[in-house]
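User: Before I run my own analysis I want an independent prediction to cross-check against. Here's the chain; please return only the structure tokens and, at the end, one sentence I can use as a sanity check.
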Amino acid sequence: MKWFVLLGLVLSSSAFVKRDVGSNLFTPGKEYIYDFTIWSQAGSADYVSFASTFNITGDLHVSSTGSNINVRLDGIKFGAHNGEFDPFHAPEYSMKSYDQLKPLSEPFSVQVSNGKAKGIILNKNIDEWAHNIKRGIATALQLDLTKIDITKADHFETQEETVVGDCKTDYIVIPGEDDNHAPLNKAQVRKFRAHGDCNDMPKRYRKPGVSIQLCADDNSRDVLNSTGFAVYDLEIQSGSLVAKNIKVGSTVIYNIFGVDGHTQHSFTKLNMILKSVGSGSVASPSNAQTYDDLKFEFENDVKEDEDLKAPKPFFFHHKGQDLDSAGQNRAADQLVANIKKIHQSLESPEVYKDVKDFHKVSPYSLLPFVSALDYQHLKDLSNKVKGGDETEYKIFLDALVMSGTGPAALVLRDIASTTTDTVYLARIVAPLPNYIRNPTENLLKELEGLIKPDNTKPNGRIIEFAFASLLGRTCKKSDCQKSGLLDKWVKYWADKIESGANFDDKTQAVIALRNVNHVKSAEKLLAVLLNKNQERSIRSAAMSGVAPLLKKDPLVFKKSVLPIFFDRQEDSELRNTAVQWTLLAAPEESIFQEVAIYMWLEKDPEVKNFIHTLFKSVSGTTKPCLKHTGSWAKTALQMLGPWEVKGKYSGTYISDYHDSQYNFGHLTATSVQKNGHSLLPRTVYLGFSGQTAGYSTKYLSFFIRLEGFGKSLASRIMSMTTGVIDFDEIKEVLNKIGVQERQADPLRIEIAVMLHNRVIAYHAADQKTITTIPQLMKKIGEMKSAAYDKELVRMMLIGGITTEQPNELGIPVSTVSAVTSVVGLHAKVGSDKAGTAMTRNYEVRLNLNMHGLSAVSNHLTPFGTAHSVEAARTIRIRIPRKISLGLDVKQQSVNFVISAPTEDDPVLAQVHATAVTAVHSDTPAAMKDQDIIDLLHQTCPTCKGMAMISKGEKFREERKLGSGYKYKSMEGINAGAKYYDCEKVHSRIHVLKQLRKFFGPENKNLGGRFGRPLTLFRLGARYMVQTLFLSPTTETCGMKAWYKQDTAAPSVFDKVEGQAKVKYEEDPKDKLGNKAMVKSSLNFKYTGATPKTRSLDMTLTLVKTGLEKIEVKTKLAAKDDALNKGGVVCVDVTATQAKVSDFFDYNGENEPTYERTINVAWSKDISSKDAGCPANSAGIKINKKAHRSQAQKDEAASDAWPYKQCREQKSSPKYPGDLTPATEPCLWATYKQTNLRESNITINYKVDPEARNRWRYPGALVAAVLMPYWVPSDSVDGHAAHGDHGVSADGHLQGELKLDVTMDEEHPEADIHWHGSGGESEHFHGVDLNFLPGPLKRPVHSRFSALMYKAFDLGVYGYCDVTPHAIQTFDNATYYADLSECYTLIAGDCSDKPRFVVLGKKISNDKLGVKILAGEHKVELNDLNNVIIDGKSQSLSDKLIFPEGDTKVFKIYKHDENNVFLLSKSLGLAIRYTGHYTTVTIGSRFRAQQCGLCGNFDGCRKNDFTGPATTCKNLQPSDMTKAYIVREGSCAGVGSVCPSS
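Assistant: Structure tokens:
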């Protein structure tokens, strides 16, 4: 755009001026003749200057009557050009006369006052396009003469009537001077106006009915810029003012990717050079019609009463229908042909071979044709296409939806009214409201008949939600007062909320009102929200529909919604949702701070965790719309009290990135609501927002409610694993205690899909309606076993907008930007059965296509031409797969065959971006592009209809990605990636910089749900793909990747055949442990001139012994049959940790240690393929011994938390015995102390002599990196002789590498000692390891793994610890109370189907006994040597004891002299008994349905002190042990159900 600035200077360079300029720019009685030129171009100049231009020239005759200026244009000629264009050296092309331009020669009159235009008089019988150009000329023929003194420099503002509206106009007057600065009777007047400052500018939009939010930053606030300027060279001649030259320029600049990205512009210039002045006059127009202003008139404007059956032209400047009946027939035929091309592009890779078709075969090729057809043609075409290919019919239906025309909507209505197929209804009805071009009350009347009482529930929801969305769009204009439809349907849904029998019916009505998105519907939803008698889920759903009330009352959230958050009696879900909506919909800095302060006294962890995650996520966002909100959140975050965010509680997580250079970004928001009753969340919301050109839209969202689902699922699984259980005995025990059954959350499942923030699909189920799920599962099961050939395809307009406005010369200028996608999946599935083996054969092809388009066009209506600059971006991915999968249950084996993609059906991923200038028909369905090109060739024979913006063929290159090295493993495969047709610079340095930009933390918010590394990778991958697709700069470039058979190779890879067998044994020889063996084989089959087979066999054995030892033995054997070459690799891993008797102690005999040995041996001797592992061969032995560092030991001896607290508890009489209690401080202390930070690693190697050459250069690189840490060998003590090094007897090189590693939290480092085979010795001390990725800097987990601790932290498991005098609950509340000598309920399943209880009693001051009812079995433990199972006493040892019966519900054994364990995998129960205390560990399936001394396991400590009856709350610790006594026998009268001290 630099040359625009220069052009403006040139236009203003002829400096020129009278003292009294009079009141007329043109003197009455005189005729002025000007050489007249309109030069218009659409192009781009930010890379290479290209443009599509046209010129209109002639003689302009002007005369004045004082109050009117009469104007006539003679000798009109036209010429056009398309291609490379230099504005200072314009290409030559001829000019010719055309009859189409004759309407311009009709005279017209401009009504003026003091030089300013006040109206225009036109011949009413000529075309409107000519009127509009004359309005533009009239705009140029005016000056505010009342304020101009040509002798004085001046600057002022005035209002002018123009073709673009009533505009504020800046004037600059520059007096003329000679070389001596003496004044001349000349002056130059310059005018400028920004069209955004014009009142009621004639500008029209066509956009999907989606909620778009302006999120402009400094680089995107002026994405679409429209301005005008003019220069008038004035002179006094013979006492009269004369305008010698008039130059007018008008620009529309479209910076969709910011000033650094691809810029598209429209620039039109009017040039009038005075040829002569003489006496005479110009006639007034005939058939005169007077207009009070000069404003541009659109011939095809949006009308409420439009004929729904007639097609409306796509552009607003068109007049009437674009096509007659014959033209519509031709367009219908072409539409069918284009549909077939799209279908073919999903089946064949041919479209990838031609760049033009690569872009052209897209949904854009369908929409103009659908838009041009009337109702009857579309209806006939629908019947025709429906009788053919089903996939093509689906594409046709999608095109109808995307077109959004009235005729298309009526055809879709007809289809919807005759089908009960939910899938088809979802396809044609659900997205329709987003695409309707002109939503009118008449269209609503046509569609409301689809809402029928006999609709099935799924169909009724789809139709109602769509109708509600369209109702909201339509009634924004006038509240639908004419038809009364808004009031009618708002009342209808409001009544359904009141009268609905089920929660899903009520929620359906709430969602419909939400989709209406109107103040009237929002008022109803606010009433629902504030009604505390309404169900919680209904109120929660209503909250999201309150936002429209902000237009009526900006404080509605603060006054009505926020108080829900501050009410601690409300459920956490409602409180969290209320504060989130308030802070994001109506944010205020004071509210953030008020909420932060309120959290200091908050006791609900669900709320507290939610607020911390919300503030943290919002404070880190990069989204421009949240800039101020984010700064407020960042400040408030500092005001929050201390809190450790945990994933087991409710939370909101936002991850996003924003490319401020090119104006695009993406945001993912996840909101999780929990209540502690289940490991599964209560609700999950997942939303995706895209940002482009300063605008943001929430294009896709999902909402899922899983209330009660986790418990229901766990109950079913437990019933399957334990079999039928008689609960009577456990229930009898609970009845004796007085336990009131703990009710599980009622089952409530909801799934909602939102497109552009409107719900389009919703399914709900509760205990009554869940019966539909088994039916669905049955159908899925039938599909899994049946053969079928299905092709799924979906075409969507993801986003798009068309704008149209005039420039200063009355020429229509349009901008179009849109993204469409086509997704296809073709699956052929068949089944074979042979004996006990079942085989499924899958032939699947997945296609993902996305097309982006942006264009700026100047339209010349008399020729029906669009002179355009366009940017096209296309990405296509096709993945064909042919797989056979077999399962033999009897043999416990899996067999599979995976075929390689063929030359004709390859795996392809290809992206291409280009920009062009073009001359084409602005009515594509008329199919007159060739006529337009012929018109172009009449004045520019060498011009092309489409010209790529390019420096030329020689600047476009092709370069492969990667080193180009062909690996042996890729034999017979043609795979690679390359840039092609590319004018961009893609050096390796450039690529590395781009990857750093994509995957670096800058410009990203890493507040994702699953931690920074995964979030960074996910954001980086999306950022990279989006950049490749958008390709924001102008240069043409493409990139492709492929994977297929290499048919030119001697051996062509055909397929891989595989088999895997698994054998598993649990607790071999009745000792705690597991043994698993896996045998697998892979055969790589090759065809071609040299067919062959390569095989890879693997045997893996895993043995786990007790809790302390794991052994893994792996053998890999490879062979190439053709070359008779191969080899064997064996890897043996043994990991051992010290056996301890005190699991929470880490001193003395319980000192944690860990040793891992890895032996790797290999041989090229293929004779050992079926034999054992090779002996005396090359190999590596790695031994790692880990122990506590001195820093850890110092921490353990300190008074810091948790060490001091654990020592105090261990020494307290509340925790008798010598063992360390399993309290929260002791668990934390043990976890920290058993994560061993110091390791000694010894690596002994024995390799072939040629290995020295292979490792020479990598070794030198490593040595260079380590050089700063090098120390001389003679200064190192204790490392003179390490292992074997030198040359072994069999010729192998031997050496040793030793690493002493300290993984301190802040300063991880290592000492490295190397002793080579040639006697070399090198030492490196204090090597800084901070450069390593996080996982490689972690300590060695010995006793408790990080995964185990994370499971406890997330609530997957809970544990409770009980001594005769102290209890720690599942929710980590610790209290002190003496256990009774009567059996007392420690922990128990208190649901309607209780599966276990754990009872305990004090048998001495420092000992307790336990009784466990697990399933139908009873276990009693009073010492560590004997156990009574179902009345039978047995001695305890390390041999597992199982209860009698077919189902091994649990196992019990003596781990050592201090610990007895009872383990039940099917019940999710583990009990540790030491004699002095017992620890109960349970799975998440029991959450919130526990009762007893250990609390209820719902994640909230404050309600742990609840008695057997749920109404008995907040008991004192001493009352807890009284309340849960089993009142039977001598204990019948002890304690009470709800005691009070």
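Sanity check: The CA atoms of residues 379 and 414 lie 9 Å apart.
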